[in-house]
Amino acid sequence: MSATLSRSILVLVTAGCLSATGSDLTPAAEASVGAGTPAVEIAPQEAGGIDPQYGCLICHADKRRAYLLGVHSDRNVRCHDCHGGNPDAFEVPEAHGGDFLGSLGKLATVEVCSSCHADPDVMRQYGLPADQIAELRTSRHGQLLLERGSEDAPTCSDCHDPHTTLRADDARSSAYPLNIPTLCAVCHEDEILMEPYGIPTDQVRNHRRSAHGKALFEDLNFAAPSCIGCHGSHAALPPNVGEISNVCGRCHVGTRKAFDEGPHGRATAEGTLPGCTSCHSSHDTERIQANMVATTCTACHEGGSASAMLGEEIEGILVRAEREMESADEAIHELVRAGHEVSDTRFRYRTALTQYRQLASAQHALDLERLTDLERVVGSISRDIVAEAEVSAEERWEHKLFLIPVWFLALATIVLAGSRLWRLRSTELASDPGQAAG
Q: What are phi and psi for residue 24, nearest 5 degrees?
């Protein structure tokens, strides 16, 4: 069959397909068809290896470009693998016959996705987990969708574009770390959708201004958690009270260890405290400043009590250590401005900084002895650095004092020389009256 005849058949099939589906060609397209030029023609090189005669693309050409951007096209997953039907047919009744599923509902979507993504033999070769559907069943989303049949719950294609499915490390993907909060906000900032479940709609906004949100969006620190960092993705659930410290401890390992060693950790294990959220907020997680520790303690402990006084002592240690570090940092800047080599000094500063950061974790154990030891190390190193800067400043002052007589002698020399020149000039004028008159 010649190329011209093939194009003519494609034009007629396309026109019939559009007519059968209730679509009309534009006048320009109709004129083009009448002239023997196809309204829709797919070049093999543009189709990325897809047969241009693949039946689905004749009517659904708008999905082709989106599909070719996704990972499924790279793995030869075709339209009929998800939607069924006969892609070799050129008539709608035949193409949409047999096992044709059409547009997938939410439950059907889970079933179709699980046909591959729940099969370990299929997923193993791509290094992908095969338990995502099983996790979905345990999540709040899965319980609503699969057990109650609620259309409020998301299905796979609500979070992953069904045609342009991208890798999670692709910045265009909805599963990319910076895009996940925006994805969750589609539902979780919808007041009408969330109202029946009593879920607040400010959680995503709170996260953006939290310490975690600033680290993620401003510092681009992808180790900082987005929504799924704490709640999980496919198995999305809010942590139980007894699980919070373990969830936070996945990142804050040293803090969790210190917390478990202290009285708050024991109370959490007994179920009488909600773990980290006793002092920190959940979605708008904040860093409690050193000078606010005692105030935070009095939210639970009565002022003047032993626990409140312990909080004041801990605050004092933290504030003093913070000031020592600030003084050391300023001292290093003074040394740099004075032209000193500070490589060794910066190394000692980093040692102090390590101990200072350990204070932030160790305070959760409420162990004054340990905190005092750390403060002593921080203070000792910081004061040595400050003393080094002070010695440098004294040396510079001594140099300035030494310059005073030098400048005095220079000025005296200039004055004497000027006086001598003036006398010489006066003598010359006195010995030559004519020159003086001139």
A: -115, 145
Dist CA 40 CA 318 (whole Å): 71
Residue for token pair 């008159």: 437
Contact (CB, 8 A) for 368 and 313: yes
Which pLDDT value is given to residue 371?
Answer: 96
For domain 306-404, say whether CATH 1.10.357 is its number. no
Query: How far from 222 is each of 168, 207, 214, 219, 229, CA to CA, in Å?
Result: 13, 14, 11, 9, 10
The pLDDT of residue 188 is: 96
- Using N-to-C axis directions, what is the helix angle for 343-362 and 306-337, rounded to 10°? 170
Any idea where the domains of the chain sit in the sequence? 1-102, 306-404
pLDDT in tens, 118-136: 999 999 999 999 999 999 9
Task: Determine the Cα–Cα distance for residues 36 and 206; give it in Å rounded to an integer.
Answer: 60
Question: What's this model's pTM, rounded to 2 decimal places?
Answer: 0.71
Q: Which residues of the chain have pLDDT under 50?
A: 1-48
How confident is the model over 197-245, as pLDDT tens digits?
Answer: 999 999 999 999 999 999 999 999 999 999 999 999 999 998 888 899 9
Q: Rg of the chain over CA atoms, in angstroms?
A: 38
Which value, to the nearest 10 degrees, does the dihedral of the CA atoms of residues 44, 45, 47, 53 take? 0
d(CA 185, CA 202): 9
Q: How far apart are CA 416 and CA 157, in angstroms?
A: 95
How many angstroms from the chain centroid is the CA of residue 386?
A: 37
List Cβ<8 Å contacts ≥24 apart for 121-128. Answer: 126/75
**Which residue, among 62, 41, 37, 64, has the nearest Cα to 53 in the 3D structure?**
41
- pLDDT score of 319: 97
